[in-house]
Design brief:
single chain; about 450 residues; alpha/beta; Rossmann fold; L-fucose Isomerase, Chain A, domain 2; six-stranded antiparallel β-barrel; about 25% strand
């Protein structure tokens, strides 16, 4: 298994012009090359159509080629006025979200003139799009393109995900209810339902030496081990069992219902899977598992998973934490990681460290109810947390009054598991909701 990597959207680039009307079609090819140069410093996987789109036939050919490349979105470089039929033919070949960049340089090219004309058509056809009028390069337009491309890539990541749902939802948490049809319709995510007994059975047949060797290696990765050898080996067995299920079923992510029988026996499995790039969440929270995979794709790191634990009005911060299943990779230093008994069960193996997060942090929650999926998100500034609560505490300061944030969580029907990572990803998450047709609730400005 390999660790998580930051998202690199696959962007199809095509340049368009309308020849025969002295609009400057001779500048189409040079402007195409300018755009490609401007994109070289961006974290995109650029797939450029080799030719120019100068009519409806070449538009459809370009679309077919970009469809073969399986692009996340299309960047249409409008170098002159372009008939909207060119764009509809392009999308007939590749039905992907499209970013229209009207190159604003020579007025006689009339590139922006066709922008609102085309977006009206795209709106009527129910397509996903953005419009920018700018020269090449342009910092603001590129910033908009980054958000658009990342949001589109998240949507495609959901469509390609296979998620193991092991043991169903937590029996004491009504709000964990899922709608498999909604997940398939909105996200296109494949759900692999697995009884908890499969995890038990896989753990039973793990060879003793394999468990011992893996447990010895894990102990060398951390600063302190305060658990019994028996609990360490049992947790390692469940880690190896979970890895086998991931491989056997071809999973990108896995949700494990640890309550009430497993609890801290699978904290190590959840932690190590996230480090390996396989999003894993406990307590049967399938929605949290999906978000952890997306957050990991955005940040290039394992995602944080925690609950509202305490409000601090003194500095307008909130402490988030969970019982102890954070990825090793989120610790500030491996020597700060302590493996200890769960604070809730006083046995098993939990992962403890204060989660460092200097700088911006985005936290999000996904839940189902009232016939729809709802994604809520908030952003703040990470500050120093202590080990007042054993687990993986993360403390975040907000501009908004923290009591107001809690009321927004309550009134907008958000849940209790929050997944997050470094950076400001509010726009990408909002776009993802637009692309998938689910509800987005911004809890902070």
């Amino acid at each position: 298994m390999t660790g998580p990597g930051a998202i690199k959207p696959r962007v199809g680039v095509v340049a368009l012009a309308y020849p025969g009307f002295f609009l400057g079609e001779e500048m189409c090819a040079p402007k195409r090359e300018e755009m490609l140069r401007a994109l070289r410093g961006e974290a995109f996987d650029v797939r450029a159509y080799e030719g120019l789109v100068l009519d409806e036939k070449s538009a459809r050919q370009a679309g077919a080629k970009l469809a073969e490349e399986r692009v996340d979105c299309i960047l249409a470089v409008l170098t002159t006025f372009v008939p909207d039929y060119f764009i509809t033919e392009l999308l007939a070949g590749c039905d992907a979200p499209i970013f229209l960049w009207a190159v604003e340089r020579e007025v006689r090219c009339l590139s922006l003139v066709c922008g609102p004309m085309t977006t009206a058509t795209l709106y009527n056809l129910g397509k996903h799009y953005r419009l920018a009028g700018a020269n090449i390069p342009d910092a603001d337009a590129l910033a908009e393109l980054r958000v658009f491309a990342r949001g589109c890539s998240l949507r495609n990541a959901l469509r390609s995900m296979r998620v193991g749902y092991v043991g169903g939802k937590c029996p004491i948490m009504f709000s964990m209810a899922i709608d498999e049809y909604a997940l398939q319709e909105k996200f296109g995510t494949a759900l692999v339902n697995l009884p908890i007994e499969e995890l038990y059975d896989a753990a039973k047949v793990v060879p003793e030496k394999e468990a011992q060797d893996r447990w010895s290696g894990i102990q060398r990765q951390v600063g302190k081990v305060c658990v019994s050898e028996a609990d360490g080996l049992l947790s390692t067995r469940y880690l190896l069992a979970a890895e086998r299920l991931v491989e056997q079923y071809g999973l990108n992510a896995i949700s494990i219902n640890c309550f009430p029988h497993l609890k801290a026996k699978v904290c190590l499995a959840v932690s190590c899977l996230n480090d390996a790039g396989v999003a894993a969440a406990c307590e049967g929270d399938l929605h949290s598992t999906l978000l952890m995979q997306l957050v990991s794709r955005l940040t290039g790191q394992p995602a944080f998973n925690g609950d509202f634990l305490r409000l601090y009005s003194s500095d307008n911060s909130i402490l988030f934490s969970h019982c102890g299943a954070g990825a090793f990779g989120l610790a500030g230093c491996s020597k700060e990681i302590c493996l200890n008994a769960s604070p809730e069960t006083q046995n098993g193996l939990a992962v403890f460290y204060a989660t460092p997060s200097a700088g911006g942090v985005t936290l999000c929650n996904l839940i189902y109810g009232r016939g729809t999926l709802r994604l809520a998100a908030m952003r703040g500034e990470g500050i120093q947390a202590d080990m007042e609560y054993e687990g993986t505490p993360l403390r975040v300061r907000f501009k908004e009054d923290v009591r107001t944030i809690v009321q927004r969580v309550a009134q907008r029907g958000a849940g209790h598991h929050w997944n997050g990572g470094a950076g400001d990803w509010m726009k990408e998450l909002a776009l993802l909701c637009e692309l998938t047709g689910i509800q987005f609730n911004a809890l902070t400005e």
